[in-house]
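Progress note, sequence design subtask.
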């Protein structure tokens, strides 16, 4: 396992370094000037330039990047250019909301994705197979924000079963908090669950054609045991890797979902930071999302390697 990790860590380190460069450059390539935003529309050129010098924005980009990178290595996330508050404090104030949404969506994604995939991979023909394939295809084709709007229309307006927007911490009021959290979590989870289901279904269909499955049938092994002990067991590696990748994508979808359901999380903060050209906040949010996605993917590879010795020996 240590040799497996040694082979993976250099690529992870390179990916994180490349991501830090992209996170640093993206807000600057978008145009706009935070110094102008701070100074106001009526400020003179000299006043704007003075603010740029104060913020260090007059330095060459490589120098700005190195200062930011070394600050990160020291644990300094920087200071917001607009509010003049530490970025770490701003993130901590919003982190709980996003964590509640991401964790709930991840649980729903895993439950629906694996369950639907096993069901679709077990039903081989008939109306049940057609219905499952159609449901997975519709979920795959529907982006999270459209899914959210549909859920609001159906469960929030038509049947009035769930509240449309708002936010209460689950720790403070579990019942109200979960009712406010369920629709945005489902909107995030269902499209990603459909992708996991499709991958598991395809893998189960592939395993079903293997010789060891035919041999088990020839020996008279019950169909349920073949599915559980042979087909499903050899398909779980796909589910592990797919889940790790999709958890990272949940964070990207949270930006739009938080805006639709009026949740005061990191996604909404990122939108505000982009609008105001608050480079420091945008950089940390983008980098943090990618770091979580990369580490989640690495963890899923480690888990897969632990389940399948062939992966460790490749």
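Output:
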């Amino acid at each position: 396992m240590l040799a497996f990790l040694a082979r993976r860590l250099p690529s992870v380190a390179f990916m994180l370094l490349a991501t830090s460069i992209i996170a640093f450059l993206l807000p600057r390539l978008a145009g706009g000037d935070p110094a102008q935003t701070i100074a106001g529309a009526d400020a003179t050129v000299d006043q704007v330039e003075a603010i740029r010098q104060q913020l260090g924005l007059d330095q060459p980009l490589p120098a700005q990047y190195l200062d930011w990178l070394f600050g990160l290595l020291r644990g300094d996330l920087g200071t917001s250019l607009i509010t003049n508050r530490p970025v770490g404090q701003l993130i901590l104030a919003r982190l709980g909301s996003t964590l509640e949404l991401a964790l709930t969506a991840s649980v729903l994604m895993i439950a629906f994705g694996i369950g639907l995939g096993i069901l679709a991979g077990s039903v081989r023909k008939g109306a049940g197979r057609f219905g499952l394939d159609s449901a997975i295809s519709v979920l795959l084709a529907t982006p999270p924000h459209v899914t959210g709007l549909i859920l609001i229309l159906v469960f929030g307006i038509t049947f009035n079963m769930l509240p449309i927007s708002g936010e209460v911490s689950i720790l403070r009021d579990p019942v109200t908090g979960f009712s406010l959290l369920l629709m945005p979590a489902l909107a995030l989870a269902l499209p990603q669950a459909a992708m996991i289901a499709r991958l598991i279904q395809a893998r189960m269909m592939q395993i079903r054609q293997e010789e060891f499955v035919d041999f088990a049938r020839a020996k008279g092994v019950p169909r349920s045991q073949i599915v559980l002990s042979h087909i499903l067991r050899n398909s779980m590696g796909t589910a592990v890797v797919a889940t790790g990748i999709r958890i990272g994508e949940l964070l990207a979808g949270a930006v739009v979902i938080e805006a639709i359901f009026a949740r005061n999380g990191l996604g909404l903060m990122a939108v505000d930071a982009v609008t105001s050209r608050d480079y420091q906040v945008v950089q940390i949010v983008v980098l943090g999302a990618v770091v979580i996605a990369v580490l989640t993917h690495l963890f899923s590879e480690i888990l897969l390697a632990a389940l399948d010795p062939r992966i460790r020996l490749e």
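The two ends are 12 Å apart (CA to CA). Work on this subtask will continue into the next period as scheduled.
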